[in-house]
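As promised in the previous annual report, we have extended the structural survey to additional targets. Below is the entry for TonB-dependent siderophore receptor.
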Amino acid sequence: MQSLSFRLAGTSVAVLAALAVWPHAAHAQSSNAPVSTLATVEVLGTAEEELKQAPGVSIITEQDLRERPPANDIAELIRTMPGVNLTGNSASGQYGNNRQIDLRGMGPENTLVLIDGVPVTSRNSIRMGRSGERNTRGDTNWVPVEAIERVEVLRGPAAARYGSGAAGGVVNIITKRPTDKLSGSVTVYGLVPQHSEEGSTRRASFNLAGPVSDKFSFRLYGNVAKTDADDLSLNEEYATGVTPPAGREGVKNRDINALFRWDLTDQQVLELDTGFSRQGNIYAGDRAVSTTGTETATELANEGAETNTMYRRTATLTHRGNWGAGRTSRVSLSYEGTDNSRYNEGLAGGPEGSISDNLQKSTSKLQNYIASGEYNTPIRLGGLNQVLTVGAEYRQEKLDDPYSMSQSAGVDLPGVDGGTRSGKSSAKSAAVFIEDNIEVVPGLIMTPGLRFDHHDQFGSNWSPSLNASYELTPTITLKGGLARAFKAPNLYQSNPNYLYYTRGNGCPVNYPNQGEGCYILGNADLQPETSFNKEIGIAYNDRGWGAGLTYFHNNYKNKITADMSDQGGPVVIPTGPDTAAQAFRWVNADRAVVQGLEGNLDIPLLGDEGSRLRWTNSFTYMIENKDKSTNQPLSIIPRYTVNSMLDWRINEQFSAQATATFYGKQKPRDRTQSGGDATGDALNERGSYAVFGISAGYQVNRSLYLRAGIDNLFDKRLFRENNSSGAGAATYNEPGRAYYLTATASF
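The corresponding structure token record, generated without further manual editing, is:
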């Protein structure tokens, strides 16, 4: 298997070289003799461009970001798209306020975040706990808002082309590019909550771009931001011990990024993009499972201590070619390095996730290397106009986390090396893919695709896909798609030396503690998670009116569960006449299902096609989201979410918006993590609620723009009622009324 991986890696490099050379050869051939087939092809969009018209795709524009500026993390705005929620990675309720992007209920770990098409994986440097949660804010806060040109949110089958980790979908953050003229801007933003125990935000950023010479140009952006943590008193009504349930932790951002562009010829561009980011938290008292908390947690929260710091370094070299007649190419080499330094958090067997009293720090180091490329060319085959895309990708991921291997084993565990276990692990994967955008008949576009991935530990995976779009009338379009997607086990789940330990409460109810507790081990024999994603939708657009409805259905197989499943039973290790330890492994669950509806309704009220006053609406309705073998939810998400906005263009200088978001009932799991029946507050549901906001913007002159707004206008507040699943669905805080002001000066 390993030799096959190396052969595939070599093939990928060879394909990348061919992708770089092929356009030159094609161009040279075209200069010597005309190619009649290309001359007769009506140039269509590429497969990637066509997929971005799929029903499960949303685009957040630069104007959207300007008119609805998030306080710090763009997840605040992404969550308003159809099919999107903010959740934890399981229904455990742990780290409940560190919510991340969840697309169509598949969980944050199945959402692939990209920056300019390059995967962002810094959160993978954070240890995955027994519940399947990571103490992370996610990867949507590495680019300041003002440096973003647009955000593409791809859900369902359209995301299958991106490989492992995109089973739920893709969030692609596109940064602003160099400009023809020297230009720049400085933005300051401030948010002040009405309730002093909730955290405020201040940030400042700059952008500078322009030409250096005829052939060279650049773009530079930087950012300094601070969001304060919620005070310990926020959730004190629900305190059951020393430390109340934690509110939202704060974050301090420092970002700097530079892009240098060299126009080699009129057809070729070479870009070097490099950056450095530092994110430090401001501790709010969070811990994974301890309901009582500790004196250490209380002291650190009251101090506003920085208990974990992430350092991220990136570099990407990209060559793009435009060879005429619709032929384009891209080849890139990328590096991402993350150092995750944090106070040691208790491993299982003690207060898991709580900061250790000795306040010692450890650092995990994650490095990722990616080589990728693709070539697009129009062809005419079988009398049909087509645009063919071929591509390849090679990834290597290396992790060194010695602290994660420091959990002691009091017994000889099967497959676990004795002595000091290495914290190093790695994975390699290679992929090739082909897509074809075909105009079958006028109005009918079909986009078949096939991706082949080979992982050096988990073998081969095929990801076929088929998307289609048909214009029933000039205003009504029918769209649909189906695809197989997958996710390889992460470097914690697959490491056989990685273990947890519990003295009793974490043992399954069917296998109670026999005196020496229970262990759960990493498992090198896991299978990749797979899903078969289907969607069908209809869209109407005419003179500013717009409406759409999409049904999606995902069959989810082999989900890796960190619950101490009794699947296959444990390995029982006698330790005395009447005592024994029990060893379980992470396992693949049987099947899960996710299905629901997404839709939108856009109504022009004033002006040409709503240019003066427009009412836009989107909704998501979850029909099912559960593990079919246990009937437990995959994550805690609202039954429905409705986002509504009135956008009023009063004149060329002045605009105003009113927004509303309605959330449906949220239900928790009805089983404990050890498999028993949940009781009491652990079964509490979170009822439906709504949050409203208003804002207004004023273009003072060509150089100065001001905007002010009120979030949560009617001060609807929700509180976290426990530090884990004991809260039922009340696992996060909904902050109250807050006021913000932002100003941008540009030239």
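Residues 2-32 form the longest helix (31 residues). Residues 47-746 form a domain with the Maltoporin; Chain A fold (CATH 2.40.170.20). These points will be discussed at the next consortium meeting with the crystallography subgroup.
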